[in-house]
Amino acid sequence: MAPEVARMQTYDTKCDCFSFAILLWEMLSCKPAWPDYTSLQYMDRVVTENERLEVSRAWPPLTRLMIPEAWDDVPSKRPDMKRIAILLRSDLNDLTTDERILHRTRHLATRSQHSFNDDLPGVDMREGEKKEN
After folding, report:
1. 130: part of which helix (H) or strand (E)?
2. CB 54 within 8 A of CB 28
3. Mean pLDDT per segment of 10 residues, for the chain of length 133 residues?
4. Chain centroid offset of residue 91 CA
5. What is the per-residue pLDDT for 72?
6. Sign of the C-alpha dihedral, residues 37, 74, 79, 101?
7. Residues linked to residue 129 through DSSP beta bridges, in sequence order
8. Contact status, residue 78 vs residue 14, Cβ threshold 8 Å
9. What is the Rg, in whole angstroms, of the alpha carbon atoms belonging to the chain?
10. What's the confidence (pLDDT) of residue 95?
11. How many angstroms separate the CA atoms of 49 and 90, rounded?
């Protein structure tokens, strides 16, 4: 929850950018944000003391920069969703042209196909037909 919402102040769509960045952080880290905080602790540490989650250096570069910007305590300093989409799309484009990632993706897809075929005897999912035994 964005600080201005928690403080019951006037807010606009920039509060959604704050919340989206938290959800994105959770998806990238595969962890819940502030899992052990009570509502009171969240208010004290995140809203009042401006505590923020750590952004991993392993994440795509523009995403690493955007998340803390989206968590700015001043809503007008946060990027809007259009800007967030542009940054995420740019990182995604960079990832889809990285040969190391493409090779790994092909490798994982092939492994998944083999695994799936092993689970369904008599069916070759690559061909969409029954296998001849």
Report:
1. strand 129-130
2. no
3. 95 97 96 95 95 94 95 96 94 74 65 62 54 52
4. 12
5. 97
6. negative
7. 124
8. yes
9. 21
10. 72
11. 32
